[in-house]
């Protein structure tokens, strides 16, 4: 048959639109979004009320003044044109109500237009804001793609080392950094966590990555010297309060050891196959950007660890151990230690997959509150 059943098509189109409209409207998702939006409004309210109230108890501020401050804080987020349209729509709403109460509707020629104008203006504002938010999301998605393209591949293999990494961000872009840099003398493994989350942390991470590559390609420094030079750059901005925790390890070519330094970061876990034990790689050191390079040089330790055939070492950020499940329990370092104790002699990819599976089973439907990044180095020969 070549005749098209328009009634059926219209029904299917309506059904398709309805399904698309209600997609994602689960009870759990709506509950989380509601609490998230409520917390954001509460934060906005507190910021608006407390502004300029340092010398005054917020509870003593009159209600009308609180309302005006909140209204001002909301409208400041609109550009001048949208602010004008929003103001006119509010005036139209209020005028429509007052004219009705005062029974002046018969004397106002444009009374019937006030309510449609107010609703129409609000609808236009909502649509424009949604379009702008959509454009911003596309730009952030592009930034995410660029950031991910700068990270090393998931898997790296040399003559004797296997390295496998995992990374996921709490937001569209993140501040965790992991890198594997191969030189003629050996392989550098760096993992770092920039304070904060989101776009600002991601931009700082990109800057850190460029500096790390520049310093290593130019000087091929030891892990300690790498951190001292990075600290000079991080501390170069006096007004910059950002700090970076990091670990750096250098695996010399054709050697069965690695050198290691830790700048305030989570202690990596080393599995020793010969002794069948795991232990934390603890060493002293401040986070980058928290103190002067002279002071960091005095306190930052560089250590050497044996790394024989079958040994593995796991580097990770705090987003892994601090990931929480539905009841608020943290994943913790003990679970990582247990996984390394059982699977530490296996390939790096297997160890990372075991940790990923364990984490996913632990958090269930919860999303990590921070970026989660970890990488495993295994000596295969």
TrEMBL record:
Sorted UniProt keywords: Hydrolase, Membrane, Transmembrane, Transmembrane helix
Domain PPM-type phosphatase: 158-379
Pfam family, one: SpoIIE
Stretches that traverse the bilayer: 84-102, 108-128
Stretch forming the signal peptide: none
Single GO term (MF): phosphatase activity
UniProt-listed PANTHER family: STAGE II SPORULATION PROTEIN E, STAGE II SPORULATION PROTEIN E-RELATED
Protein name: Serine phosphatase RsbU, regulator of sigma subunit
Organism: Fodinibius roseus
